[in-house]
Specification:
The complex is a heterotrimer.
Chain A: H1 4-8, E1 14-15, H2 30-36, E2 60-62, H3 63-79, H4 84-118, H5 135-151, E3 157-160, E4 169-174, H6 196-208, E5 213-219, E6 229-235, H7 237-248
Antiparallel strand pairs in A: 3-4, 4-6, 5-6
Helix pairs in contact in A: 4-6
Chain B: E1 3-9, E2 15-20, H1 30-49, E3 54-55, H2 56-61, E4 87-88, E5 101-103, E6 108-113, E7 119-124, H3 131-145, H4 161-174
Chain C: H1 3-16, E1 20-22, H2 23-40, H3 45-71, H4 79-95, E2 100-102, E3 110-115, E4 124-125, H5 132-135, H6 141-152, E5 155-163, E6 172-181
Antiparallel strand pairs in C: 2-3, 3-6, 5-6
Helix pairs in contact in C: 1-4, 3-6
Classes of the chains: A alpha+beta, B alpha+beta, C alpha+beta.
GO biological process, one term (chain B): endoplasmic reticulum to Golgi vesicle-mediated transport
Family (chain B): Belongs to the TRAPP small subunits family. TRAPPC4 subfamily.
Pfam families (chain B): Sybindin
Chain lengths: 252, 175, 191
């Protein structure tokens, strides 16, 4: 809702993740929904509407497959760019729609798991989504559940800028980003960090939640963690202003 | 447990990687390494070509390798693939290997050629055993940190920091 | 090697030798790649198919080393064995699926892989634009992977999808044909 032009970029293929989106209520009858589209379906009706959204929740695939796909994404992005910044921007743009989709999936899973115990009798559609209103809950959602969904572990650190000039800056640290596990950046491109893709995912999650932000990935190697990466999250002014209003209103 | 050095030769016989791990051998110039790689590649090809081929009947019934002993003979398959030849080489059937080992008083040179044609050459202490374990690990690290690196171009010199780091780390851990 | 033996090897490797990630990460990443291509090529699906195949080919040429290094298997003695190796070991260790090998031609040069599961296409519905279901092969990258990987072990193959549940077909099926064994590396045959 924050950036219509960027949202529209993800519409070329529809993902079932979007069915959890609040502005797009699913019709009560799945059959009707399918009939409304011009798409053919298999006679055994093996469509996304007939499969549980959680069926792949704990499924696993080889890490190699991800590495090869990600590598090809980087190679493809490289064909169409002029420099390192351009390449990082491109990778960021690839991650962004994934962030929007993952956000829906995260909501869906937090809602269904919390209502199953407390609101067993009422319909899940009436339960308010567990949407973060303030910056910190949003960042915790990213640092914890999002990272676990993507990488099977939480991020390694979450910090707020100590500089009074940049209260809108937050840092999420990953000591050893999965996406860079097999990547060796050539010396002449040493500023490049391919985790710009993950920065794009974070940006998609922030924007999808209504927190306009710019996210970038930076190399911060240590001896123990040569691939250590800081994701710098910079929230827009409107977000910071709203944050003050909400703070005064006592909303957490 | 001494691994002196490793070199990798691409499919065309070009040297794409050379690294020393432990002292013990005298240094070679870069040019000498290039000559070594090219010469070895040529000699290897010749040793392969003088290795007798397996007759077709043997290849399909005697199930050449231990892993394929369960294979039932499948009549009529292999013939269609080997143009004008009663022998099966290199496909289908057991591959002919070339030179695998060279030895001097001071070192042993072991060659492992992958099915894709890349060669890994390890220089080790002649008394060192279990070279195949080291070789297997080197191949796995190559598959991980060279093949999965989007900035590596196939058949070109290997300049992958993560490959150097993991290879060095693993060998150090073994000594 | 029999198909059952290949299955055992695949299962064992998957359990003991394979580092894993969340399947949804792979699914969504692949979906992102396809969506990006559809956008970059202005929904020219023929071109998207071609690009996916090309990407797969690049992957296949690299992935074969990973396959050989992890599995330690030797050369197959015929194309039937190759088919089982692809379906029961290759697909198993990379995507945790085992498509069925079927529909052999009598010369044993062509077979089909039938996919019950396809993690690349989980969550996917093709665009409802009246064309995608007739033109786009969503998982076309897999054809390129097979082509690239087999070329590196001296087999030239043709691989293409003939049906896909995403198009409304009842099964997802890929046809694989052996074109020839590549022997250029070897000295000429003596007569």
């Amino acid at each position: 809702m924050a950036h219509p032009p960027r949202h529209s970029a993800m519409l070329s293929l529809s993902n079932s993740g979007s069915s959890a989106n609040s502005d797009k209520q699913q019709p009560p009858q799945q059959i009707q929904h399918i009939a409304n589209t011009g798409l053919r379906v298999p006679s055994n009706r093996k469509t996304i509407y007939d499969r549980h959204l959680n069926r792949s929740r704990n499924a696993e695939i080889s890490r190699s497959s991800f590495a090869f796909l990600f590598g090809e994404m980087v190679t493809y992005a490289q064909r169409r760019v002029t420099g390192i910044q351009d390449l990082e921007k491109r990778l960021n743009e690839q991650g962004y729609p994934m962030g929007l989709r993952l956000l829906d999936l995260l909501y869906y899973r937090t809602i269904t798991s919390s209502t199953s115990s407390s609101l067993a009798s009422s319909s899940t559609s009436t339960a308010p989504p567990n949407r973060p209103l303030r910056i910190l809950p949003l960042l915790h959602l990213i640092h914890g559940p999002l990272w676990r969904l993507l990488f099977n572990r939480p991020a390694d650190a979450l910090e707020h800028s100590v500089s009074p000039d940049t209260p809108n800056e937050y840092m999420i640290t990953d000591n050893d980003p999965l996406v860079n596990a097999y990547v060796s950046v050539p010396k002449e491109m040493h500023m490049l960090n391919c985790a710009a893709f993950v920065a794009g995912i974070i940006e998609g999650v922030c924007d999808g939640c209504g927190f306009e932000a710019k996210v970038t990935a930076h190399n911060q190697p240590t001896e123990l963690w040569p691939g250590r990466t800081i994701f710098l999250v910079r929230f827009g002014e409107s977000v910071m202003e709203r944050e003050k209003v909400l703070e005064r209103a006592g909303i957490k | 447990m001494t691994v002196f050095s490793l070199i990798i030769i691409n499919k065309a016989g070009g040297l794409v990687y050379q690294r020393e791990f432990q002292p013990g051998l005298r240094k070679l110039s870069t040019n000498d390494y290039l000559v070594l790689a090219g010469t070895f590649h040529g000699v290897h090809a010749i040793t392969r070509s003088i290795t007798p081929k397996l007759p077709l009947s043997t290849a399909s019934t005697a199930a050449t390798t231990p892993t394929s002993s369960n294979m039932p003979p499948t009549p009529g398959i292999p013939n269609s693939f080997t143009p004008g030849s009663a022998f099966t080489f290199p496909n289908p059937g057991t591959p002919a290997t070339g030179l695998e080992c060279l030895e001097t008083d001071k070192f042993r040179l072991t060659c492992f050629q992958t099915l894709t044609g890349t060669k890994f050459l390890l220089f080790t202490d002649p008394i060192m055993g279990n070279i195949d374990v080291v070789m297997k690990k080197v191949y796995e690290l190559y598959a991980d940190y060279v093949m999965k690196n989007p900035f590596y171009q196939l058949e070109m010199p290997v300049r992958c920091e993560a490959f150097d780091r993991h290879l060095g780390g693993w060998l150090r851990g073994r000594t | 090697m029999s198909a059952t033996k290949a299955s055992r090897i695949g299962e064992e490797l998957w359990k003991t030798r394979i580092d894993k990630v969340n399947a949804e990460l792979v699914t969504l990443t692949y979906g992102t790649i396809v969506a990006q291509l559809c956008q970059d090529y202005d929904s020219n699906y023929q071109e998207v198919n071609k690009q996916l195949d090309k990407m797969g080919y690049n992957i296949g040429m690299r992935l074969i080393e990973d396959f050989l290094a992890k599995s330690g298997v030797g050369r197959c003695s015929n194309f039937r064995e190759t088919a089982d190796m692809i379906a029961k070991v290759g697909f198993k260790i990379f995507l945790n699926i085992s498509p069925t090998v079927t529909n052999w031609t009598s010369d044993n040069n062509q077979f089909s892989l039938v996919f019950d599961e396809n993690p690349l296409a989980d969550f996917v519905e093709l665009p409802d634009d009246g064309r995608a279901q007739d033109e786009l092969w969503f998982s076309n990258i897999l054809c390129g992977v097979l082509r690239g990987a087999l070329e590196m072990v001296q087999m030239q193959v043709d691989a293409h999808f003939v049906s896909d549940v995403l198009r409304g077909d009842d099964a997802t099926e890929m046809r694989v044909s052996l074109v020839r064994y590549i022997e250029d590396e070897m000295p000429p045959e003596e007569e």
